[in-house]
Predict the structure.
Amino acid sequence: MIQIQNVTKSYGTSIAVDNISLEIPAGETCCLIGPSGCGKSTAVKLINRMLEPASGRIFIDGKDTRDFKPELLRRHIGYVIQNVGLFPHMTVAENIAVVPQLLSWKKEKIEERTEELFRMMRMESGHYLDKYPRELSGGEAQRIGVARALASDPEILLMDEPFGAVDPLNREALQAEFMKIQSNLKKTVVFVTHDLDEAIRLGDRIALMREGKIVQYDTPEEILARPKNRFVSDFVGADRALKRLSRFPVSEFMKMPASVKVNDDIDAFLAQTRKEGKTRFVWLLDEDERLIGPVDSRHVRAPFNREEDVMEANCSAITVRDSATLREVLSRMLGQGVKIIPVIDDDSRLVGEISILEIEKVTEEAALEC
Amino acid sequence: MLKSPLKKFLRRSAGTILLAGVFIYLILDMNAWNLFLKTLFPEETEWIYPRAMLIELVGEHLLLVAISSALAVTAGIATGIFVTRRSGKVYLQTVNDLTSLAQTFPPVAILALAVPFIGFGFKPTIAALFLYSILPVVRNTISGIEAVPAPLIEAAFGMGMTRIQILFKVEIPLAMKMIMAGIRISVVMNIGTATLGAIVGAGGLGVPIISGLVRQNPAFVLEGALTVCLLAVITDRLIAGIEEGSF
C-alpha cells in the first residue's frame, strides 16, 4: 500500500504537485492522468524519491520512505519509463540483470529469474537474451522494459507513460498483456498516462490531476458515471458511455456458442438447432476446434455443403480475441454490420460468442446506475 | 568456415601489421635509408643523421609522447568527467575556454616560455605537449558524456543506481567511442608535435630535422619526418583497432 500525505513539490516559484493526498491499496493499479504539466510524472518520482517533496510524507506499507536510503528504496520499486530506457550498450540479458546485480544476487539466481520472466512475458528467451536493444522492435523492447522492472520481483511498480511511444496496435496488445500479468502478480502499480482509454482499461482507480492537484480519485466507473465537476466531465468527454464499455472484458459476458465440427453430422445438428429455435448462427469448427466460419441454420438445406453454406471469407474480420473489451466488440459489430460475434483464444480456438443484446444489457445497467 | 579469433584478428589488422613490419625494418636497416635518400639527393655527401642511431631517436620520441599523452589522457578524462558532474557544471565553460586557449597557444611559445623556469630538455617539452594535447581528450569526454540521452540516466537513477554507478555503468561505456576518438586525435597530434622537443634538447625524431635545417641537408629532414609520419599512421591504426575491439 502506498500512502501519499499532503505532499507538495515545487520548482522555484512554480508548484508541480500541490498538497496531494492519495492512498493506493496493495495489489491495485492506480492510473494518474491529466493534461501535460499537471504534475503526474512528478508525483510518481516522489514515490521512489527520485525527487524529494518540499513538504508532506509518503508511506509504503506503513513505513516512511524517508527512513530508507533513496537508492535502496528504488531498487525495491520497479520503474518503467516512456521510450523504454533500455541501455543500448547492454544485451537484453544484461539489461534485465541490472537491478538484481545492484542487489548483489548470485549469477544462477539472476539467470533463473530471467527465464521465469521470459516465461511470464511468453517470449522465447533464447531468441532474445544476447540481442541488443537496437535489434528489437518497439513492442519487444517495451516488453523487455517491463520484464526488467519486474526483475527483482518488487511489490510496487511505477510506470511513467510506458506505452506512450508505441503504435496503437501494439499498445493494445501490451495493455492486454499487462492486464494478464497484473491479474496474476497483483503488484501495486502506479501508472502515469495521458490516454484516458488506457487509464479506464487498466486502472482499478483513476486519479485525475490538474495543475498539481488531484481533481477526482475514484474507480473508472465512478469517474465516468459521476464526474465531480465540469473539468472532469470535459476531460472524460461526451462519449463516456462508450468509454465505459472498455471496462468490461468480453470474456466475462460471452456465452457458450453453438458449434459443430466438420466431421460431425452437420445436417442433424442444424435440424436440431432449427427445432429448438434458440439460436440462428452455428459456428463450424475444424478438428482442432479452430473456427472456420458461421453457418446460418435458417438458410441451410440438407445436405450441408461447406462451399456454399459457410461464410468463410469474412470470418477473421468478425472475430475478436478473448482479451478484447466490449468496446472493441461493439466497434467490430458496427464496422462489419453484424449483431453476433465469435470470440477466439490465442490459438484461434472458439471459446464463446457475444451478441449486441449483451452489450445493450450492460449499457442499460450503467444508465440505471447514473 | 572456421572463424577463430586469431583469423578475425589477422584479417582486421593485416594492414596495421604490415605497416608496423615496414617500420621496424626501416629503423633497423639503415642501408635501405641510405639507398633511398641517396637516390633522392645525389648532390649531398651524407644521407643519414650521423650523431644518433635512428632507433635511439625513435625511443626518445616515443618516451616523450607516451609520458605527455598519458598525462593528457588521464587529466583530460578526469576533467571531462568532473565538469559534467552536477558539482562541476559551473566550471564547464571555463574548462572549455582554457583548453581551447592551450591548444591555440603555439607549442613553440610554450617551450620558449617554459625554459627560463624549468630549464632545457625533457620537462618543458612534456609540459608543452601535455597542454597542447589535452583539448581533444577533454572536449570528446565532455561531448561523449553529454550525448548520453537523459532518459537513460533517468532510468538508471530510477532503478536505484548511485551517481557513481551511473557514471561507470552507463555514462562512460556509452561515451567510450567518443573518448577513444579524442585520445586518438590527441596522441597522433602529439607524435607530430613532439619533434619540437629537439629545439630545447629533449631529443626525439626532431633532432635530424633540426640538424637538417641547420646544415641545409634535406636528407636528414626527410629521415626524421618520414619516421614520424609512419609512427603516427601506425599509432592511429592501433588506437582505431582498440576502438573497434579487434585488439
About this structure: The CA atoms of residues 108 and 114 of chain A lie 10 Å apart. Chain A has a mean pLDDT of 87.
